[in-house]
Write the structure tokens for this entry.
Amino acid sequence: MNINQELILALDAMGGTKAPQVVVEGAKLALERYPNLKFLFFGDEKQLNPLLKEDKKLSSASIIRHTDIIVNDEMKPSAALRVGRKSSMALAIQAVAEGEALGVISGGNTGAYMALSKILLKTVKGISRPAIASYLPTERGGETVMLDLGANVASDEFNLIEFAIMGSIFATDVLGCQNPSVGLLNVGEEDLKGSSVLRCAADYLKKYPGINFYGFIEGNDISKGTVDVVVTDGFTGNVALKTLEGTARLIRSFLKDGFSGSLMGKIGYFFALPTLKHVFQRMNPSRYNGAIFLGLNGIAVKSHGSTDALGFSNAVSVAVDMLSHGFKSQIETNMEDVKTFLASSESEAKTQEEN
Amino acid sequence: MNINQELILALDAMGGTKAPQVVVEGAKLALERYPNLKFLFFGDEKQLNPLLKEDKKLSSASIIRHTDIIVNDEMKPSAALRVGRKSSMALAIQAVAEGEALGVISGGNTGAYMALSKILLKTVKGISRPAIASYLPTERGGETVMLDLGANVASDEFNLIEFAIMGSIFATDVLGCQNPSVGLLNVGEEDLKGSSVLRCAADYLKKYPGINFYGFIEGNDISKGTVDVVVTDGFTGNVALKTLEGTARLIRSFLKDGFSGSLMGKIGYFFALPTLKHVFQRMNPSRYNGAIFLGLNGIAVKSHGSTDALGFSNAVSVAVDMLSHGFKSQIETNMEDVKTFLASSESEAKTQEEN
């Protein structure tokens, strides 16, 4: 895909706490970055029309598709599938499924978004389970991709291999890593080193030449940046991500308490404020970039629900990066290689057994 | 157990990076706190003798049991079981098993310590699997107990119930919680709400009157302090704890970078330093208190390997708290109640099926 050709993106204009304002403003910022973008806005035209009219450039690059139906944050995925098929979220995804748009961005309900995307976009050929990925800051500088963050509750060894491949391609295309290293999240003690699923996945990844496999890593390696891609099942990934967010929040609150506790602290706070702000912004890039659904027939990016216009525009940028690198076809090619490799591993194992 | 009677504790004098100095100094501090303590020091008498001689009070409350053998940090649990039976760690545990001491404290290799403790102390009647617990700081103030942190890789619903009971008793006895609330760590999305093991454990805990069950919680609830006791399997608990530690380290490093980056930052750092120090000390009580092995026939506390004398003395205090509340007999009584409850639940379910 040529980045200079026209790229049409579908936007769920009603997803997120500050929608549709933030979505429109975010699109405007993204259009400044990529002048070849075109937008399909799905949502309430009464709200969207006046917002779009404010900017001539944006309005001439945009089409509004009206719907009154919104998937709210409280809706369960199963309910979204039943009653949300004509919602702004579902119609935006549908536009990608039908080839009208090349990618979709929504700041709405993550569970509903994943459920609708799975049904409407379906998984890429060769991938059995899509995954939710995000990238996190690290001590060594740069970022690490982590997946799955909760698309699946349990994962077998083949799912983990799929995650490793999708994560590697993402790290290369979006983060610009060369030959990204991949680690499997596990526990520390040697004798307890994880389940048979983890050991089996590690055995395959060690042998498979298409992945730069580092080996097992532990929870503290995520923030250390030991690897470029952290692979784990959706349950563990979700707990780890939320624990990380909770810890950042706790430290922030402790610092606030500490600085307000004494005169020295208050003076310190005045001088320390710019640093503190910068640090906590660095801590939460997901708030600015969102999560990405990998393994679907179409690019689907989840913007953080409470993000601002800049954050939404960054989510749009992630979609553009994935499009311009041909993310989907790379996955397909890689999964064909993996299948050949797995089949040859199996027949090798059989031959060894027979001898 | 009366806290005024003589309490004999076994100390692995050679465990931890600054052993035996820190162990001896820690024992000295603990003795000031609890004058009725007596210590059995297991380790190299050539090193221990001069250290103990420095303090008359301590030396008259102490006996040295010599051994040259040390379990080092690199030793796998299986190796410790094979070659470490005469080590300072094993002999200290053995002293509890034989009734010579009431509890053991070690700052050595956690995996080896757990493996040796399981073999030598065995599990409390009614408990099928011991767990590793620790307590963590929270936003609401106070602390939350989390278990299992890695004693087991996988846990079934009955293990989780055992953890809930042991965690509740610990929160009551050591942290002074009244009727502590218990949460089961899970993922956020409704439709994905965890494995059948988690749902089954939740069903039992909801009905069992001996536990103040809050329900499912998510990773960010750990630091928020939503519950007094966080129950999870050893794999997830280990990943969550290490992710939390890694995040704290990352923020610390970002703050360091930030403050050294500009003149304003450097001035800020000067004023902010006391607050920052205090916050990062608050963040890591485990460094000062250690982890606790729950469910064994005897108190076994793991002091942090790199702790100082105050940290080691705090680990001793935890052991004293558990002893003075009769931790073991409380577990036994509770587990009998649980068994009665589970049996009646089962027969109830059967009756319902038959009707």
Residues 128-288+326-355 of chain B form a domain with the Isopropylmalate Dehydrogenase fold (CATH 3.40.718.10). Chain B touches chain A through 70 residues (CB under 8 Å).
